[in-house]
Design brief:
With 206 residues, this protein is of the alpha+beta class. The strands form two sheets. The protein has a five-stranded mixed beta sheet with strand order 4-5-6-7-8, sandwiched between helices. The protein has a three-stranded antiparallel beta sheet with strand order 1-2-3, with no helix packed on it. Helix 5 crosses helix 6. The protein is globular.
Length: 206
Amino acid sequence: MKSPEITLDEKHVYRVAMGDKLKEVPSVTTIMKDVGYYPWVFKEKDESEIHFPDEEITPAERGTAVHKITEDLDRGIEVEPIAKELAPYIEAYRKFKSDNNITITEIEEIVFCQEFWYAGALDRVMKINNVKAIVDIKTGTQLKVTGIQLAAYKYAWEKMGGQKKLNRFALHLKENATYKLVPYRSREDLPDFLAAVRVFNRKRQT
């Protein structure tokens, strides 16, 4: 499936081509952070500035690095060596793939919803033991609002012509080299995201 003409820069800003101009589009996570759907710690400080004791990298840096390595692995690019602080998460991902019958159809696919004007990047579209799903890869805390994030991606994906009726999962990769596949099924997730879009836009009206 061909994505719309949309760009993503190094600052994680999405822009979509409108005629001969590029117009900025807020990301799903930008909208959710703005209206307070994430824990207070991320509202008070930039996630990239948060350090935990005895960690050489921030949670944000760790998540970005793990995402990149898992993407390379899924594209058939072997990554060696892997930093010791990342190795358990990559081992967990490999274990997930070996424990289950996995068929990946989309990797890091940019989605765009013109109707509600937002964009994002869904990590994977895959079959897990013949269950078709959108999957978001996580290395941090398990949160209920991840269901809202996934619902937004799913809606945009379907509007772009992607397969409908996909299940939604977060794949949590853990520091002890284990994983947890968390399903999200609430019918309220999409309405909750669209409510966030309305609040986000209202705050910017002049």
